[in-house]
Structures are given as C-alpha cells and as structure tokens.
Amino acid sequence: MQRILNKIKEYDCIIIHGHKRPDGDCYGAQFGLKNIIESSFPEKNVYVVGEKSDFVDFIGKMNNITDDAYENALSIVVDTAVQDRISDPRYIKGKEVVKIDHHIPVDDYGDLRWVDTSFPSCAQMIAYFYYKFKNELKLTLDGAIALYTGIVTDTGRFRFRGVSKLTHQLAGMLIEKGVDVEYIDNKLSQESLDMIALKGYVYSNFVTTDGFIYIKMTRDVIEKYSVTDEQAASMVGLIGGIQGYPVWALMIEYPNEIRIRLRSNGPTIDKLANLYGGGGHAKASGAKLEGWEQLPAFIKDVEDVVRKYKEEL
Ligand code: AMP
Q1: 85: Cβ below 6 Å to ligand 1?
Q2: Residue identifier of the C-alpha nearest atom 19 of ligand 1
Q3: Less crowded by CB within 10 Å, the N or C end of the chain?
Q4: How many C-beta atoms surround the C-beta of residue 60 within 10 A?
Q5: How high is the mean pLDDT of the chain?
Q6: How many Å lie between the centroid of ligand 1 and the Cα of residue 230?
Q7: What are the sequence ranges of the domains in the chain?
C-alpha cells in the first residue's frame, strides 16, 4: 500500500481502469480512488475510463480521453483478476501499471500489485487504503458514496462471506463522511415493471438438474422484456439459496459467447469456472461458453462438483 501511494505521488496523471461489464464494486473502487487522489492532490490529472454501467450511473461518469493522456501516466486497474477482462485495453500504454484486486489471482499482470482475497469488495480495499493514510489523504462525500455503494453491492448488503468487523468499521467511517444509507438503497433498489415481469419469467422457467439450478437469458427473452443486458444479468440472485440446489447460475447470451454468472452456497466453484474461461471467488465466479452446445458438458461438470461436495459432507 505504501508503494502504491508513493507511485501515485510520483505521477502527474493517473488513469483508473476497471473490468468489462462493470458492477457496483468496480465503479465504487474506480470513483472512490479517483476522489481520494483528486481531493488529496488537486494538481494531478485523474481519469476514470472503461465501460459504463446504468445501474450505478449515479456514482459518476466515465472520462473520454485520448491516447496521448497515457504518455507518462500511471495506470491503476481495480477489481480485475485477468488482463483480458480489463475494460479499455489502453491501460497497457501507461508508463507503469498497478493492480488492486480482491479476486483469486489468475493473471499476475502489473508492475505493482496489491491483491487480497480476504476483502469482500475492492471498494473496501480502497476505503482501507484511505483509512491507513488518512493523515495525508482526503476523501469527500462523493468518494464516500462511491465506496459505500461498492461495499454494499459486492457484499449483497453485508450478507456474504468475507464481511468482517473491518467491513462495518469502514462502512461506519463512510457514513461519518455523510453517506445517506437510504439514498443509496433507493438508488440500488429501483425496479421497472419490465424487471418485475422478467422476474416472473425467471421463476417460471428455471431449469433444475442434480443439485444445480440455472436460467437461460437468450436474446429473444431480453428483447421481449425490454431490459438491458445488465438488468437481465442481475436476476442471478433469484434462484439462489433454494434447498437441495447449492449451485446456481444465470446464463446470458451475447453475439459471440454465453456468459455464465455462477454462484454457490456449498462447493467452491472458481476452479470449475477456470475450466470455462473464467474465475472469480470461491462461491461467486464468472465463466463463458462458446455456444449452447457446450451447456450439457458444463452441467455435467457442475453436477460432478456438487456430487463430490455432498460425498464429503
Ligand atoms: P459475475 O457473475 O460477473 O458477477 O462474476 C462473479 C465474480 O467473478 C466477479 O467478482 C467477477 O469479477 C469474477 N469474474 C467474472 N467473470 C470472470 C472471468 N471471465 N474471469 C475471471 N473472473 C471473472
């Protein structure tokens, strides 16, 4: 952390990247870090780049920058385990690259890395970074809102494994900075009628196999319910925690691949996700299929993982 702070001090321009299809934690970590650097070192140019998220758009807006901004710049990549998931591949043009992440490491990219899987969100890492150096760093309300949003979204509102005393202490610190808990919850909880209708679809169309539940989000379903890909993908939690089904997944169809959001409250699933071009956390990972024809093999692999887990109980 000290070495990262030294790097930040060394550079006049810092460009913060996240991952493709960013979520609340990615945005929270990116905009939280931007706020800390900008507030503490007003003379520096700090940019946040990458794909946009409608869900957490209230946190901040991405910057559009030209390639020459990377000349003599420090690239910081947050919340991203593997290089090919980094949003905006120009990060590599930075003079040096720093990786800050809480996922199980797959890819050791970066000149300087701070990777700690004990943190339940990357936003908590950034909040901790601020806390550690609070005598020399500043954080304003906008940054606190970003970090708090990252923490609540990635912990499922403080429900997931990894939530600790430190998580609550840092959340408390952010509330002290003025975060309005209800305002953030309202922003995150808003749902359209289309979303409610899609929930009905999910509850009527999930498929069960041996210990595994999944729902397919094909393009025709997404179009029929007039939702964004991000909204469709957010349905994964609906089929979680059902008795007898410790592993569940939402599969969303894209033009060239099918993205799997894989979840578990039983066996660890990140190794399985590694076999299908993915990874993440022990109980929440992402993976990919090249097409629906790969689905039977994937289901069989999940069933094997569940079977082994049940045998070991
Ligand atoms: P998601 O289902 O997209 O919410 O992903 C669950 C977790 O796994 C998140 O923390 C992601 O950052 C991570 N993840 C998703 N896809 C991949 C991938 N292809 N490779 C590595 N990690 C991933």
Answers
A1: yes
A2: 278
A3: C
A4: 19
A5: 97
A6: 14
A7: 2-188, 193-312
Is residue 261 over pLDDT 90?
yes
In angstroms, rounded to a whole number, what is the distance separating the alpha carbons of residues 305 and 207?
18
The model's pLDDT over 58-79, given as tens digits with 9 standing for 90+, comes to: 999 999 999 999 999 999 999 9
> What pLDDT, on the 0 to 100 scale, is given for residue 307?
97
Cα of 23 vs centre of ligand 1, distance in Å, is 10
pLDDT in tens, 17-70: 999 999 999 999 999 999 999 999 999 999 999 999 999 999 999 999 999 999
Instruction: Indicate the top mutation candidate among 285, 289, 298 to test ligand 1's pocket, ranked by most ligand atoms within 8 A of CB.
Output: 285
Same fold for the domain at 2-188 and the one at 193-312? no
* Closest-CA residue to 36 (of 143, 112, 131, 116): 143
Q: Which atom of ligand 1 is nearest to 260's Cα?
A: 2
CA of 44 to the centre of ligand 1 (A): 32
Rounded to two decimals, the pTM is: 0.94
Bridge partners, 85 (sequence order): none
Paired tokens of 222: 């997404």
Q: What pLDDT does residue 106 have?
A: 86
Query: May I ask the CATH architecture of the domain 2-188?
Result: Alpha-Beta Complex (3.90)
- Identify the CATH assignment for 193-312 out of 2.60.40.2310, 3.10.25.10, 3.10.310.30, 3.90.25.10: 3.10.310.30
